[in-house]
Amino acid sequence: MKKYSSQYGQGAIEYLLIIAAAILVVAIVILAITGALSSGQEQAGASEQAQGNSFAKLNLINIEDSMVLYWKLNGNATDYFGMNNGVADGGVDLTAQGKFSQGAKFDLDNKFITANKAIMVGNKVTYGGWVKFDSFNCPGGFCLVMEQDSSNEDSFEIYANSTTYPTNPPDAVYGGDPSRKATLTDSNIYCWDGLVSWKVAGEGWPVKAGQWYNVYCVHDGIKMCLWVDGEKRFCWNSIENVKEVNFDIGLLKENNGYDLEGTIDEVMVWNRTLKDSELKALYEIGSEIR
What is d(CA 54, CA 290) in angstroms, rounded to the nearest whole number? Predict the structure, then answer.
């Protein structure tokens, strides 16, 4: 009996040890899974918080307010909001390397992209995006980046000059200092406010071929300002109204002239005057508006 009892007691102890070990293993597994999930949630939360704090810091929470057109130009000219899609004409290369992913490349051959309906109403507007000039050897003396498709030159535009750099005050013949010639690789970029006068075109800002620039024209109903790479470069008084017309990039569509040789990316248009902080942030964070 003693021998049997001893054997029985030893077996029970071994059985209990096995159960305890199993419970310990299960507990360890549960703790590991819980820790991993907690860590993952903390990391995800930290990432979301960092992004949220970044956007809040840059005042981009309401960046889509009054945005009427956004062409990412990643293989197509579809509007981000699906309301003002672009129509490409003349074989525009929409698979070219852009500032972010793909972009729209133009090569001086009457190529352009136009919005499918009229936009931009009122006299407060912000428009622009990223542009890289391949050369400033543009026909007619101007390299047109983007414009309102008006019947004449009374629309808002972004362009570079391929002949002379206008000065203030301009000369009586061509609006510029003949000694300051643009070259194939160097020019100035400008906003145009719709008045056919060099006096309101502003001083512009130096740009070079082969480099990406973030360019915006901002009209607040009283003045027009040129922004380049997140900085306000030049402003002048202007009370011109924004025309309710289509919007184009690549050339001056109304006369099939001033073709661009270069690439455009991330085109955005607002029916409002963006804040200085928003314009700085658009340059700093690139295309990440959401």
Answer: 11
Domain identity same for 110 and 42: no
- Its pTM stands at 0.74
| Gyration radius of the chain over CA positions | 30
For residue 40, the tally of other CB atoms under 10 A from its CB is 10
pLDDT for the residue 29: 46
**Which structure tokens are listed for 79?**
């509007």
Residue 62 falls within a domain, yes or no? no
Please indicate, yes or no, whether residues 95 and 176 belong to a single structural domain of this protein: yes
Q: What pLDDT was estimated at residue 180?
A: 52
290 within domain boundaries: no
pLDDT in tens, 86-135: 988 878 999 999 998 899 999 887 788 988 888 866 778 899 999 999 98
Regarding whether 29 and 92 lie in a shared domain, the answer is no
Pairing mode, strands 102-107 and 186-193: unpaired
Q: Which residue has the tokens 């945005």?
A: 67
Chosen domain end from 32, 57, 82: 57
Q: How many domains does the chain contain in total?
A: 2
Final residue of a domain: which of 57, 79, 99?
57
Say how many C-beta atoms besides its own lie within 10 A of residue 227's C-beta: 25
User: What order of strands is seen across the sheet that includes strand 112-115?
Assistant: 86-89, 112-115, 246-249, 142-149, 156-161, 186-193, 205-208
207 and 144, same domain (yes or no) = yes
Domain range holding 196? 67-285
